[in-house]
Amino acid sequence: MSLILYQHPLASFCHKVLMALYENGTPFESRIIDLGNEESRASLLRLWPIGKFPVLRDEALDSTVPETSIIIEYLDRHYPGATPLLPLDPTDALCVRLWDRFFDLYVQEPMQAIVADIRRPEDERNPKAVAQAQALLRTAYGMIEQQLGEKLWIAGDALTMADCAAAPALFYAETLVPFGEQQVRLQQYYQRLLDRPSFARVLEEAMPYFHFYPYSQKLPARFRPERSDG
Q1: CB-side exposure of 22: number of CA atoms within 13 Å?
Q2: Are 66 and 49 in contact (CB under 8 A)?
Q3: Angle of helix 109-119 relative to helix 161-176, nearest 10 degrees?
Q4: What is the three-class DSSP state of 156?
Q5: Concatenated DSSP letters for 116-137?
Q6: Do 42 and 79 contact (CB within 8 A), yes or no?
Q7: What pLDDT score does 27 carry?
Q8: Strand-by-strand arrangement of the 3-7 sheet
Q9: pLDDT at site 9
Q10: Is 211 exposed, middle or buried (0-12, 13-18, 19+ CB in 10 A)?
Q11: Contact criterion met (CB below 8 Å) for 12 and 175
């Protein structure tokens, strides 16, 4: 198979690329990376010494493609499907790129900062940094609510790369800072993302790993792992 995706089913940035692949039914081979396994980690580092996933390897074109937004644009250009993930119109494409970056920088990053903090020993935690990340998420939610207006998706009536970025970012962020009662459009948009078959498939595949997520009991009910007394 030409395309190989090095990824992990629990990682939110991997969800972004997986949603894009599933949206267009793009054939690929999945290789799950266990960073705690020396051999598995080495296979990733050989491709991308930075050591972050996902990374796409295209054997047919002899290309190694890191970084989620670049991967999705690469797929859109070389393996297009029924759902164009980046508009042809330059102005529309800029809007999609803006909101793609918005979700990565102002939803994903503060979300990950909060999760990283809870994993630290208690004496190394940083409540001030967590409070700042929570405040940034609330600001981002308000801006998303305003951007949505009467739109079906974040940049208009068609799902794009920006929505692939939004889905996993909001999925995890909502467990940390719930949406406000007045953010009706955001709540409705989030539900549309959950119901999208491509993202639903991503979440189904991630379910066996959700018990590793420290806030798993705050996930939507159908995705919560069963509590274990052991």
Answers
A1: 18
A2: no
A3: 40
A4: strand
A5: HHHHS-GGG--HHHHHHHHHHH
A6: no
A7: 97
A8: 29-32, 3-7, 55-58, 63-66
A9: 94
A10: middle
A11: no
Segment 160-214, tens digit of pLDDT: 999 999 999 999 999 999 999 999 999 999 999 999 999 999 999 999 999 999 9
User: Rounded distance, CA 228 to CA 179, Å?
Assistant: 28
**17: which 2 tokens?**
């690329």
Whether the CB-CB separation of 68 and 17 falls below 8 Å is answered with yes
Q: Three-state DSSP class for 84? A: coil
Q: Kindly give the pairing relationship between strand 63-66 and strand 55-58.
A: antiparallel
> Got the DSSP string for 182-201?
T-HHHHHHHHHHHHSHHHHH
DSSP string of 158-226? S--HHHHHHHHHHHHHHHHSPPPTT-HHHHHHHHHHHHSHHHHHHHHHHGGGGGGSTTGGGS-GGGPPP
Question: What distance lies between CA 183 and its chain's CA centroid?
Answer: 21
Q: What is the 3-state secondary structure (H, E, C) of 30-67?
A: EEECCCCCHHHHHHHHHHCCCCCCCEEEECCCCEEEEC
pLDDT in tens, 34-88: 999 999 999 999 999 999 999 999 999 999 999 999 999 999 999 999 999 999 9
121's tokens: 């020993």
From the number of C-beta atoms within 10 Å of its C-beta (0-12, 13-18, 19+), residue 40 rates as middle
